[in-house]
């Protein structure tokens, strides 16, 4: 009987934890226009996906693609943006794509450039810490931390940082080039 109670208690704890994680995801989510359009139901959708490239980092790969979504016959109401997927470093088993709307791309590109500029010009200071961070609506986050003479650039996705990748200074330049290519391919005015 005691063993049964222990098993039941563990099962209840696991169920409660799953509910907390699911609740956190729902509470966090601010669906982008692109995600809502791509996941629409009860209608025929045209999804055009064009690969932008990927960044390979130790232990993970970040893949980028443009996505254009519309209903056939309604080409004038296209929803555009990019998808980002981190594979190989999923913390909670999630490798779902994350969406960046076209109206977020320019700001994301500028944030990456600001981080690259800071890295190139900053002088390390003893006993000081610097943190730069940028996040989109769907939870794609780019962060830069400097502690003394140590630098680290991190890209995460999701409310619980379900995907995580560590970038180098050169990777930031590549990320900026990918974002700029998306802006150009989607015809976004800067």
State the helix count: 4
Question: Structural class per helix/strand content?
Answer: alpha+beta
The level-1 CATH class: Alpha Beta
Largest sheet: 4 strands, antiparallel
SSE series: HHEEEEHEEEEH
Mean pLDDT: 78
How are strands sequenced across the largest beta sheet?
1-2-3-4
The portion of residues forming beta strands comes to: 25-35%
The fold-level CATH name is Secreted effector protein pipB2 fold
Number of structural units classed as domains: 1
Report the C-alpha radius of gyration, rounded. Answer: 20 Å
Per DSSP E runs of 2 or more residues, the count of β-strands stands at 8
Description:
With about 190 residues, the protein is α+β, with helices and mostly antiparallel strands. It has a single domain, classed as Secreted effector protein pipB2 fold. The protein is about 35% helix and about 35% strand. The protein has four helices and eight strands. The chain has helices at about 1-30, 35-40, 100-120, 170-185; strands at about 45-55, 60-70, 80-85, 100, 130-135, 140-145, 150-155, 165. The strands form two sheets. Strands 1-2-3-4 form a four-stranded antiparallel β-sheet. It has a four-stranded antiparallel β-sheet with strand order 5-6-7-8. A hairpin with a 5-residue loop joins β5 (about 130-135) and β6. α3 (about 100-120) runs antiparallel to α4 (about 170-185). The longest helix is centred in the N-terminal third of the chain and has 27 residues, at about 1-30. Residues about 1-30 have low confidence and may be disordered.
